[in-house]
């Protein structure tokens, strides 16, 4: 992990934040992330993020669950442990629907949640760098990554002019969990790892 | 001033009072960050005492066998299965509020969903006790698990509704827990970032999973909760449907009716909402959250109660009609001789009064918005719903096909009652601890609707409706 420099601006109104995001991106700054106390609809699009594929993953898990249940039950009741239940057919699909449904839902729900935790790197005892404690209360914290081209003073002034109530510069260890790892929304390439102003 | 969102003035505010994002946090976490009141301790002690009595009752049952209960030749399912169905039913409201109302985009769910989901989890925990301990030789409970074993590769019967129940309830519990906790993580992070004491820093630090509030994480979080809601919606219907299959697929007159699945689901939502009302009315008063759980919320839930209560009433009448119209002697007797009348006739009429007649009073707006009346009704409905399960189970089986075994009049033993009280202890112990250490209202969800549905923000929207279309558009769609 490398230590990088970030310019942090705290906004206290989402109505100011949205135009600010657009302005700052237009100016060529690289927004690392915006930390918010609740989901702001449309902010992901404004930041140029692609849609998440989590629901697709959920669908695949669901199919896995369905296949597991059907395969497992039909193997047991038609091959491994054949029983005569009131003369009914061994392959009695209708009676298996409840369990097939439950496993579909179970696999999908559990799988999606674990995938979510993995992608967002959420787990007990995980510690991350928090740019501002207010990000879980009432502040919208925009974090701009400094590159070799960034003039920190200028970036800070620009943030303040865009409506940020509190501006500062922080050094933080970057990891892909910091949020900015979707390569498809990179505005420009960074050449070096350690960057100074 | 520009508005990002606009909501019609016809809609009641969901959050009352002069609120900002910070005020919302402060209001909701107040009770977590201060010492619990004397009332909280008294409540917790009573719950723990009940829980201990339940543990003792179970100890008696495990040590001396199911004979500690007054189950007999005909009534093999008594209070235990009655209580099981009752608790499971109560759980359903939490999922309905958090999942189905999310899909229907009902904003008012934000005030009550967190506590209702917690209630679901605790109710399912309480419900799960009954079939497990009812097994008698509980140390063989793992036999229900399908795994390759040394018992000759003996598999459970996948065609049996009782095994479907095992799968349904464990899936339901797991998904409810995931849904609840994934929604809780951002709020726990709020508590972590405010924590002053060492214990709170450690506890909420671990429990918040390192949540930061990153936009990408929120995007995934929204996707996750939406899909989980989509999964939980058919799941919750399936759970009580499968519970009803325990009865409906049998050949017992009074049980084997095709109306059971929708009737059970409606009854479950009915009793669950009543329990949510009971808990919410106490919670909002004790924790001073009247601004977040408003009269509007209470009225909305009462509307669900009157709707589902009417569906349940309709089902009761349909059952009676079919018992007569079906022209089957046993079916007719089960309903008209042993249910409406007979030694347990009193329980049928308690059920009818509590579930069908009294909720109809909620057609009056005045009563729907009356807190004391709602509280009484919420208890009445749950008494009625308990008797519904008792009526279905006991009155259908206490006189079986062999008249020589009819002499028995089933009464619960002290340990059957103790077991039931013990599950109340479990439920309320969990609820008291939850309400002390976690936010009972979803903070981030309230913030999410604050600027559209908060009273002070709605006041600023006044006059917007009088504007011309163009002006209205410019003011409300500013990005």
What does this structure look like?
The complex is a heterodimer of chains A (197) and B (479). With 197 residues, chain A is α+β, with helices and mostly antiparallel strands. Chain A has two domains: 3-49 and 131-185, Alpha-Beta Plaits, CATH 3.30.70; 54-119, no CATH class. Chain A is built from five helices and four strands. Chain B starts with 20 loop residues before the first helix and ends with a helix. Chain B contains 17 helices and no strands. Chain B is mainly α and 479 residues long. Classes of the chains: A alpha+beta (197), B mainly alpha (479). At the A-B interface, α1, β2, α2, α3 and α4 of A face α1, α5, α6, α7 and α15 of B.
Low-confidence stretches of chain B: none
The total strand number of chain A stands at 4
What is the top-level CATH class of the largest domain in chain A?
A: Alpha Beta
Q: Kindly provide the radius of gyration of chain B, computed on alpha-carbon positions and rounded to a whole number of angstroms.
A: 24 Å
Q: Give the overall average pLDDT of chain A.
A: 83
Instruction: Return the string of H and E elements of chain A.
Output: EHEHHHEHE
Question: Can you give me a brief rundown of this structure?
Answer:
The complex is a heterodimer of chains A (197) and B (479). Chain A has 197 residues and is α+β, with helices and mostly antiparallel strands. Chain A is 41% helix and 15% strand.
Helix and strand arrangement:
The complex is a heterodimer of chains A (197) and B (479).
Chain A (H helix, E strand, L loop, with lengths): L2 E9 L2 H13 L3 E6 L7 H4 L7 H27 L12 H27 L20 E6 L6 H10 L4 E8 L24
Antiparallel strand pairs in A: 1-3, 1-4, 2-3
Helix pairs in contact in A: 3-4
Chain B lengths: L20 H13 L4 H27 L14 H25 L5 H26 L26 H34 L3 H10 L7 H34 L11 H27 L8 H31 L3 H9 L7 H13 L7 H4 L2 H27 L16 H24 L5 H11 L1 H7 L7 H8 L3
Keywords:
heterodimer, A: 197 residues, Alpha-Beta Plaits, 2 domains, 4-stranded antiparallel sheet, disordered C terminus, B: globular
